[in-house]
Design goal:
It contains 10 helices and 14 strands. It has 395 residues and is α/β, with parallel strands linked by helices. 38% of the residues are buried.
Length: 395
Amino acid sequence: MTLRDDVLKMLDQVIDPVSGRTVVQQDMIQGLVVKDGHVGFVLEVASGRGPESEPLRKICEAMVLGVTGVKSVTAVLTAHDDHSGHAHDDHAGHAHSHAPAAAKPAPARKEPPPPAGLPGVKNIIAVAAGKGGVGKSTVTSNLAAALQAEGKLAAALDADVWGYSIPRMPGLGGQRPKVSPEKKILPLEAHGLKVISIGFFLKEDEAVVWRGPMLHKALTQFLEDVAWGELDYLLIDLPPGTGDVSMTLSQLLPQATFMIVTTPQDAAQKVARRAAQMADKVNLEISSVIENMSGFTTPDGERYPIFGEGGGQRLADELDVPLVGQVPLTMPLRAHADAGIPLVAVDPDDPASQAIRHAARGLIALAPPAPIALPVLEVVQAGPPQPVGMSLPMA
C-alpha cells in the first residue's frame, strides 16, 4: 500500500456526526495531495455546515498525522451549495448563450441513519465522575454484581482507556477474549458478569497513548463488534473529567443515561458538577447520583465522616435527580477489589455491600417500565345475533 492509501484508509475511520457515515464514504475528501510525507486535502461539507464542521476538520488532521510516514497535514474546510447552478463560458469558439443555465438538481438528502445502539440491551448507564480517585470503577463493578444479585442480566464496559482498572475488579486481569464464528468479540465472564476492557487487548499494565479519533474507534468497536447478547443493564465506566470518550458515547448511544459518582466533600461535589454539565451539553440524561466514601465504617460498626458529609445529596438536589446510594468506605470493600472479587458477591452483610445493593434497587426503580402487551380478546358469536334493547308494549 502507498502512503496515499494509508491516508485514505485512516480517513475512512472518521465518522461524520450528521450522517453517521465516514467522510470517505460521502466523498467529503477532495483534492488529496501526498508528497514527500506532506499531506493536504479539502474537507467539503454542505452549505451552512461550515462553522460547525471545524471539529471534524481537526479530527481528520489528527487522524492523518497519526499515519506512519506523514510529516505534516493541512486540511482546508469548504462548503458547497447543492442548489446553485453555474453557467460556464465556452472558450472553444462557440457563441455565448444568454439563456440562463439550468440549475443542477440538488441530490436527494439522505436522512441520517437511526442510532445503531445496542438492540439487545434494555438500559445503558454511563458511570461518570468529574475527577479521578472517587472509586468510580469500584462502584461500577460492584453495582453490576448487585444488579446481577437482584436477578438482572448485567455487564460492564471499561471505557476508561487511560486508567483501565475494571479487569482487576472481577479477577480477569491478563486474560484475552475470544472471537465467535460471526467475527464478534466474546466478552469475558466472571461472577455471572460480562466484561470488556481495553486492558484485555494490551500487555498487562501497558500505558495507552491515543488521540481522540483512536478513542472514538475503540469505543465504537466495543459497542458494535462485541457479542453482548441480551442484557438488562450495561454499565459503562467512563474516564474521569469531560473528554472525548463522553462525547463519542453521546453520538453512539443517545439513549444512555448518566450516573454521577462523587464523594461527600464540597470540593469533589463541585468538580462532579462539571461532569453533569458535560452530560447536559451533549444531550444525555442524568439519571442519578451515588455518593462513594460516605465515611469510614470500622469492622466494629463505628462510622467516621473523614471526607465530610452531604455532598452527594447537595449535588442530587442541584441536579434534581435522586441520590440512589451512599456507600461507606470499608476495609473489605478495598480488600476484595484488590483480590478481584466483587464484595457484594461474597459479603452481602458488609455496610458497603448493603449500600450498593440499595443503589442497584434504586436504578431498577428508575428504569422505564417495559411495555405491556395487552391480550387480544377474540369474541366468538354463537348463533344468530340476539336483539338488544327494551320491548315496548304493543297496543
